[in-house]
Write a structure and sequence with these properties.
single chain; about 130 residues; alpha+beta; OB fold (Dihydrolipoamide Acetyltransferase, E2P); 2 domains; five-stranded mixed beta barrel; 1 helix; about 30% strand
Length: about 130
């Protein structure tokens, strides 16, 4: 009987080892599948974020004019060679929507601006994209 027990154990051992290696293979495949999914999805999510950061919301700039700062003076500035003043309560934002100090304005900066209804030469809101 001892010989039969040994034969039985020898037959069992490869089967159990085979089952363990099958489980390991399945675990490895599942792990690789998750990694592949993460690699495929994360860049798409990141691109979506960066596009949103680079462009202001269209609804915010519906009535805005677009131009480039061509000159800066003490109390006015030229956009596409047209002179504009700034209202005392002007709101100047960068392209991320953060408040921008008027002292940071530079020639060649691209701007989207809104002029006051009553005074077509006074800017009350402006979004600035500084050159990189």
């Amino acid at each position: 009987m001892r010989d039969d027990d040994r034969v039985e154990k020898m037959c069992e051992t490869p089967h159990r080892a085979s089952q363990r290696s099958d489980i390991r293979r399945l675990s490895l495949r599942a792990g690789l599948g998750l990694i592949a999914l993460a690699v495929a999805v994360l860049p798409v999510v990141r691109v979506g974020d960066s596009l949103a950061e680079d462009q202001p919301l269209p609804a915010v700039t519906v009535n805005y004019q677009i131009g480039e700062i061509t000159a800066i003076y003490e109390k006015t500035l030229d956009i596409d060679r047209r002179n504009f003043g700034l209202t005392p309560d002007v709101v100047i934002l960068d392209h991320h929507g953060r408040v921008l100090d008027p002292g940071r304005l530079v020639v060649t900066a691209e701007v989207k601006f809104h002029v006051k209804k009553e005074q077509s030469d006074k800017i009350d809101k402006m979004i600035v994209t500084l050159p990189r």
